[in-house]
Amino acid sequence: MSQRDTRQPSPARRLSGVLHRHPVLRLTLLLAAPMLVLVVIYLGALAVLLVSAFWTTDDFTGEIVHEATFDNFRSIVTTEVYRTVTLRSIGVAAVVTLICAVVAFPMALFMAKVASPRSRRVLVVLLLTPLWASYLVKAYAWRAMLAGEGVVNWALAPFGLAGPGFGLTATVIVLTYLWLPFMVLPVYAGLERLPDTMLEASSDLGAKAGRTIRSVVVPLAFPAVVAGAIFTFSLSLGDYIAVQIVGGKSQLIGNLIQGNAGAANNLPLAAALAAVPILIMVVFLLGVRRTGALDNL
Amino acid sequence: MTRTKLLAITAAALIALTACGDDGGDDASADGGDAGTSTDQGFTPPDLKALDKLGEPEGEVNIVAWAGYVEDGSTDPAVDWVTPFEEETGCQVNVKTAPTSDDMVNLMKTGQYDVVSASGDASLRLIASGDVEPVNTDLVPNYADVFEALKMKPWNSVDGVAYGIPHGRGANLLMYNTEVVSPAPDSWSAVFDDASANSGKVTAYDSPIYIADAAVYLMATQPDLGIENPYALDDEQFQAAVDLLKEQNAHIGEYWSDYTKEIQAFKNGDSVVGTTWQIIVNLAQADKAKVDAVLPKEGATGWSDTWMVATKSEHKTCAYKWMDHIISPTANAQVAEWFGEAPSNSKSCAETADAKHCETFHADDEAYFDQVWYWTTPISQCLDGRTDVQCKDYGDWTTAWQEIKG
Questions:
Q1: B270·A43 Cβ contact <8 A
Q2: What angle separates helix A267-290 from helix A44-52, to the nearest 10 degrees?
C-alpha cells in the first residue's frame, strides 16, 4: 500500500484527479463543443443576419453599403405587398397546421390505443416511409398529379369536378402531405403515454367514447398536438419551394426572401424580411407557452 | 442562464465586427465602380488589367452559363461540344446553369467561377462591381471572325476596353399551344390586352427584366407615353408598364424561370401562351408538346450574350481557351443551332447543319436586330439619352416586380 503511494500516478490518472477537484473546469470542457456550435455557429449566424438587415445595397453593382439605416424595416412595414404576403403566409401555415392536426389525431389515436402492439410498429414504419423520399421528389410528384392533364383531374372528371390546379390550395395540400408525419409522431407519442386506466376510469364513470375523447383524451393530448403544431407551423411558414412548384403565381414570405437574396441580390432587405418569420415564431411560441403546453413537453 | 446570454451576445458582437472588417476591405476596392460618371454608361469600372499571355492550362474551368450553352452530351448524346474541348486542352469543364441574369451575377460574386455567359442586363453590373476583368481579345484568335456589329458594344466594353467575347444573340419569342390558341397570335396582345381569352393559362418570365416586355408592347400600343427605350422608363412610363403587368397577373397561371418548368407546363396544358426562348420551343416540340413560337409584330426583348472572365479566376488560361473554343466556327454553329440563336462568328454560318440557320435567325441582319431590345440593366441615368428626368433603376424594377406578383 505504501509502495503504491510513493509511485507517480499516470498522466491520465492525474488528469482525472484534476477534473475531480475542479467541477467548473469539468463542466466547461464537457460543454465547450456544444456551446461552440450553439453560440458561434447558430446564434452568431442569426445575429449577423439581423445586423445586416440594417445595411443597404448599391442597386447597380449589388455591393453592400455598410451604413446603419432603418430603410429596410420601413419599406417592409409600408409596402403593401409585404403585408399581404406575410398575412398569406401565416394563413397558409395556420390552415396546414389545422388540417394536419385534424387528420393526425384519429391516426395517432388508432395507432396508440386501438392497433395491436405488433401492427403498431408496422404503422409507425409506414408513417415514416414518406420521409425516406426526397422533398423535391414528393413536391414534383404532386405537380404531376395536379397538372392540367394529371391524375387528379382525370379521377375527378367522371364526377364533373376538376382539381384545384396550381395555386394556394395546391400549396396547402402539398404542405399538409409533406408535414403530416411531423404532427402524427408527437401526437402518437403523447397518446401512448396516456394510461389506459384513465380511459377505463372514464368508462366506469359512465362516459361514452365521444365524451371520453372530449373530456379525457383531447385535454391530455393537447400539449402533444401543440408540439406537432410547432413543427408544422414553422416548416410551412418558412417553405418556399413547394409553393414554387405547385403554387402557380402565388408567393409566400420565403419567396420574397429568396427573391431578394437570390434574384435581386439585396441581402440586407432579405435579412430584414427574414426577421418577420422569426418574430412570428417568437409570438407563436409565447402564445404556446401561455397555454402551458410547453411545461408538459 | 444570464451567463449564457452574455456569452452569446459577446460572441455575436465579435462575429459582427469581424464580418464588418472583412467586407469593408472588399468594398474599398470595388467602391470605384459607382463613384464616378465619366463614361457613357454612367459608371467607372475598377482599374483592372487584362491577361497578358496564356500560361499552361490549369486542368479545369468552372462555367456559369445559360441552359443549352455548355452541352457535354448528357442532354442529348448528339449534342456535345465540351468533350472535344476537354480532350484538346485538358481543361475539365464544370458547368452551373443559371435561370436568370440575377442568378448569374450572384453566382459570379461567389468567386467560385471562372467564366460566364452574361447577357446585357448582367454584364455591366459585373464590370462595375469588378467581378469580371477586361479581356485581351488578342488571346482569342477566333475573335477576328466575330461579326463587327457585335464588337465593342455598350454591353461588352467600357471606354474602348473590351470586357468580353460576343457569343450570340436572339429574341424572346411568344410561344403558344397550337391547339388552344387559334388563330396563331402575331402580337404580344395575346399575353396583355387579350390575355383574358386564356385566363389562368398565361405564363411570363419570372424576372424584373420582364417589365421591359410590357414596355415594348406599350411602345407600339400607347405611343403617347413616348417610350424610346424599354429599359429607360421614367415614373409615368414605368407606372404604365407596371399597371399593364398587374392586369396581366390576373390571367397568369404561373411565372417561369426554370425552363424545364415551362416545358412541362406547356406539355400538360397548364400554360398555353407566354414568353419563351427558342431552345424551350425546340425541347418542348421534341417532347411532343403541340407548341409553336413567333416573333410578334411589336418587336421583342432579346439578348446579346458575352463570355466574360472572372477577376478572381484561378483558371484563366482554361477560361480563355474555353472562350476561343465556344466561338470557334464549329462550336459556335452547334450552340447557335441547339439554343436557337444567331451565332457571333461569321464563319459558323457555313458550319450549321441547317444551311439556312443564319438566315432564319438573321445572323447579320442588323435591320432585324433593330427590332430587338437586348436585355440591359436599367439605371437612374436614362439610357435613351434624356437628361431632364430620372429613370427607374433596377432596384425599383425589382421592388415593382414583387408588387406585381402580389
A1: no
A2: 120
Which residues of chain B are within 8 Å of residue A61 when distances are taken between CB atoms?
A: 30, 33-34, 125, 128-129
Predicted pLDDT of residue B398: 85
The dotted CATH code for B173-276+378-405 is 3.40.190.10
The residues near A117 (Cβ < 8 Å, ≥ 6 apart) are none
- Least-confidence region, from A28-42, A176-190, B17-31, B269-283: B17-31
Q: Taking the domains of chain B in order of start, what are their residue ranges?
A: 60-170+302-364, 173-276+378-405
Report chain A residues whose CB lies below 8 A from the CB of B124: 60
Given an 8 Å threshold on Cβ–Cβ distance, is B377 in contact with A80?
A: no
Residue B13 confidence (pLDDT): 44
Angle at alpha carbon of residue B337, lines to B332 and B338, rounded to 5°? 100
Residues of chain B with pLDDT under 50: 1-39
Mean pLDDT of all residues in A38-50: 87
Global pTM exceeds 0.95: no
A interface toward B at CB cutoff 8 Å?
35, 39-40, 43-48, 51-52, 57-64, 66, 75, 79-81, 84-85, 143, 147-150, 165-166, 247-249, 251, 256, 259-260, 262-266
The Cα of A33 is separated from the nearest Cα of chain B by a number of Å equal to 14
User: How buried is residue B151: exposed, middle or buried, by Cβ count under 10 Å (0-12/13-18/19+)?
Assistant: middle
Q: Sort out which chain A residues have CB atoms less than 8 A from B43's CB and list them.
A: 60
Number of other CB atoms surrounding residue B388 within 10 Å: 6
8 Å CB contact of A43 and B16: no
Q: Closest Cα of chain A to B252: distance in Å? A: 7
All residues at 6 or more sequence positions from A77 whose CB lies less than 8 Å from its CB, including other chains: A83
pLDDT mean over A19-37: 87
Q: Per-residue pLDDT averaged across A220-235, rounded?
A: 91
For chains A and B, count residue pairs whose Cβ atoms are closer than 8 Å: 130
Whole-number pLDDT of residue B393: 85
Q: What domains are defined for chain A?
A: 2-45 (no CATH), 80-296 (1.10.3720.10)
Tell me which residue has cell 460618371. Answer: B37
Q: Average of pLDDT values for A100-121? A: 92
> Is this prediction's ipTM beyond 0.95?
no
pLDDT of residue B318: 94
User: Position B382: which residue type?
Assistant: C
Question: How close is the nearest chain A Cα to the Cα of B94, in Å?
Answer: 21
Res. A32 pLDDT band, cuts 50 70 90: confident
* Residue at grid coordinates 472572372: B310
List the single residue in B16, B24, B268 with the smallest CB-CB distance to A147.
Answer: B268
Integer Cα distance of A263 and A256 in angstroms:
10
Instruction: Give B218→chain A minimum CA distance, Å.
Output: 23
pLDDT given at position B42: 66
Output the CA torsion sign for B400, B401, B403, B404: positive
What is the Cα–Cα distance from B65 to B63, expressed in whole angstroms?
A: 6
CB–CB of B8 and A248 under 8 A?
no
The per-residue pLDDT for range B256-277, each reduced to its tens digit, is 988 888 998 999 888 999 999 8
Q: Is the CATH code 3.40.190.10 the one for domain B60-170+302-364?
A: yes
Q: How far apart are CA A286 and CA B1, in angstroms?
A: 18
* C-beta atoms of A251 and B405 within 8 A: yes
Average pLDDT of every residue of chain A:
87
Domains B60-170+302-364 and B173-276+378-405 in one fold? yes
Q: Provide the percentage of residues in chain A whose pLDDT is more than 70.
A: 93
Q: Please say if the pLDDT value at position A115 is more than 70.
A: yes
Sign for the pseudo-dihedral over CA of A85, A87, A90, A95: negative
Contact B406 A81 (CB under 8 A): yes
